[in-house]
Design brief:
Elements lengths: L11 H14 L12 H8 L3 H13 L3 E4 L3 E4 L4 E4 L6 H7 L4 E12 L2 H7 L6 E11 L2 E10 L17 H7 L7 E10 L2 H7 L6 E10 L5 E10 L3 E4 L9
Parallel strand pairs: 3-10
Antiparallel strand pairs: 1-2, 4-5, 5-6, 6-9, 7-8, 8-9
Helix pairs in contact: 1-3, 2-3
This protein binds 2-acetamido-2-deoxy-6-O-phosphono-alpha-D-glucopyranose.
């Protein structure tokens, strides 16, 4: 079993985090298993309780573990935890978890913007937009259906891109010079309709999350409007909240 390297420049809590994460990944600790206490972990790895607490708290925040008052810390059921703080794309999110992201393109077309999309993307009705519908998978398991509408000068060229092999966000940034700055996102609960359920390989009427995202190059230039359907049972969205300090 891996141990803490005292001479390493990597902070001990960070090393411990990776060791604990590894134990979950290796299946040594299963979903809903109670993990050893802070005291046991600190004694086992020869580190302070503070360090053990910090590593465990980080993993709770990342959704690897969850705590139950008075009972201890448990392994989370294997859900995808996505932090709602950084603007990232699917490829980045899934790679960060050590899984293999992939995509199946369901449709990819240039169409005239209808009234709703034109208003959101702040363009004229009828202007060309690229509409892409993809099934997104992690380690070959379907997780989400993404339907995105993109507009920028030259967006027609996206039609010839292979979006099964390439990350859309990476292409936009690196090839098309579209700098991604920020996004507004909303999440709504719903039930899977037959067509989406079939693609996601879930039962009709299972819980899903609708996610709508408008992404901007700068505050006044939206270039993407995405409406996605995520499997509700496979995702946890996580936000860290901090109370304003009273002056
Ligand atoms: C995420 C985004 C989507 C974006 C895609 C790019 C939502 C809620 N969020 O899924 O807007 O188009 O990532 O992914 O759909 P890619 O860079 O892996 O192609």
């Amino acid at each position: 079993m891996k141990s803490i390297h005292r001479g390493s420049p990597i902070p001990r809590y960070h090393q411990l985090k990776e060791i604990l994460r590894e134990r979950v990944k290796a299946g040594e600790w299963k979903p809903n298993d109670l993990i050893p206490s802070e005291r046991e972990i600190s004694e086992f790895y020869g580190i302070s309780r503070m360090t053990a607490r910090q590593a465990i708290t980080d993993l709770v925040n990342e959704g690897v573990f969850y705590r139950e008052q008075g009972r201890g810390t448990f392994v989370t059921r294997n859900k995808i935890t996505q932090q709602l703080m950084r603007l990232t794309g699917f490829t980045e999110d899934i790679s960060a978890r050590g899984q293999r992201p992939s995509a199946r393109v369901l449709s990819q077309e240039i169409i005239p913007a209808d009234e709703k999309i034109a208003e959101i993307l702040r363009i004229e009705v009828g202007e060309s937009i690229c509409r892409i519908e993809r099934l997104r998978l992690a380690d070959e398991a379907p997780l989400a259906i993404e339907r995105t509408h993109i507009h920028f000068r030259g967006c027609e060229n996206l039609l010839s891109e292979d979006l099964e092999q390439h990350s859309l966000y990476r292409l936009l940034e690196e090839k098309y010079g579209v700098p991604l700055l920020e996004a507004d996102q909303e999440i709504e609960a719903g039930l899977a309709m037959p067509e989406d359920a079939q693609k996601l390989e879930i039962e009709v009427n299972s819980a899903i999350l609708f996610i709508r995202r408008t992404t901007y190059t700068d505050r006044n230039t939206p270039f993407e409007y995405a409406t996605s359907v995520y499997c509700g049972s496979k995702y946890v969205f996580y936000t860290h909240l901090r109370r304003d300090q009273l002056l």
